[in-house]
Amino acid sequence: MTGKKLRLYPLPAQELLGESIYEDLELPPPGSRNPSRPYVIMNMVSSIDGRTARGGKASRIGSETDRRVMRTLRSKADAVMIGAGTLRAEKLSLGLDDPVGPQPLAVIVTSSGELPLENNLIVSEQQEVLVIAPEDITVHSGGVLRLSADRSGNIDLTEALRILNAEHAVDLLLVEGGPSLNYSLISQNLADELFLTLAPKLLGGTLDESLAILDGPVLATRDINLVSAHLAGGELFLRYSLAETA
Amino acid sequence: MTGKKLRLYPLPAQELLGESIYEDLELPPPGSRNPSRPYVIMNMVSSIDGRTARGGKASRIGSETDRRVMRTLRSKADAVMIGAGTLRAEKLSLGLDDPVGPQPLAVIVTSSGELPLENNLIVSEQQEVLVIAPEDITVHSGGVLRLSADRSGNIDLTEALRILNAEHAVDLLLVEGGPSLNYSLISQNLADELFLTLAPKLLGGTLDESLAILDGPVLATRDINLVSAHLAGGELFLRYSLAETA
Which CATH class is domain A37-242? Predict the structure, then answer.
């Protein structure tokens, strides 16, 4: 099966020849525009046992195909957002491989200001970085968007998304974790889709270091719909729409 | 899509007409016999965010189709095994719906002897129950298999499986959790397959109450192979083989 990329669902199943998974997706989907915020998609990779990090790092779970899917989704996004904890966990890029082409805006949400930008964020010359932080936190970065936050430092994400849309022309926002940021967006009905790569691995590990897709209290029951399923090298690439609850 | 049961993989995809998912499976697979133990399959249901219980209970996650899949797998098994924690969490049956037909042996593994058999285990007259417990633990039950255990009360599972095979004619053992028992079997290379129902739900919840498929330290890297994938009502039914690591 190695090398073959199959679309399993919707039927009819077909082999993808030459193209990357999701390459032909139109995002945001036609007719989906919400005037008050960007269309928000999440992309995560999980093991079969629900772990999204290994030794604290997400980068070790997915395959090269998963890495390409991540780049494909980023190439459609106007901005790529992560929580600061994800940046603290490992050195990463929020951009595309082409060092001279256009890049999505890199957005990092922090509640504490503890942000190893210089050490852990790989940024090409073409990429701009925007840090979103509570009003009373000191951040050493060029672009900072300061917003109100609750007592725990949780940013007003509705306002953050409104400003990203209105002032930074972000129509498609790609969120790449971590579990606390994912949870905040989903619990506030601010996420439209989840792209989940299910890696054929059993990882184990204490829950502190292994993480999950979501970290937070029990959610209200939600309608989640499987939009498509692809298979490559034993990895499943699942696209779910997250219907808004009333 | 409601009501339709699709086999997505292996190709060609096809609709299952009238039959239950996995109904035509031959288990143990021909030629797979290990002389020292039963063929061991696990069946679990998980939300998209890797949770296997809601409010501590697994029974609330899967659909009616998932419940039927569970019954189909049980109907092929000589014994159905759970850990005592799973029994403590909720009232359950380890049998089939037919109250007068033959039933798999119900096997419950306990390290502490804390076993609410009378309150939580629903048993038909046709079903026998076997409790596997450490040698020095008092258990109030008819059938008890006493085995050596380590200082934490963890039973010698290799010996338990050998005896189930040799003395109770168990060729196919179905394990239905919880995460500690699953972990013990997988980490000791005692499990052959994992049947995973991926329910289209995002549950959240603290990890104490929400559980995962596995609970234990980081595992050695393992080869896991997707054998088949079915889809019904948005639920994915995934069958993985767990290759033994050297």
Answer: alpha beta
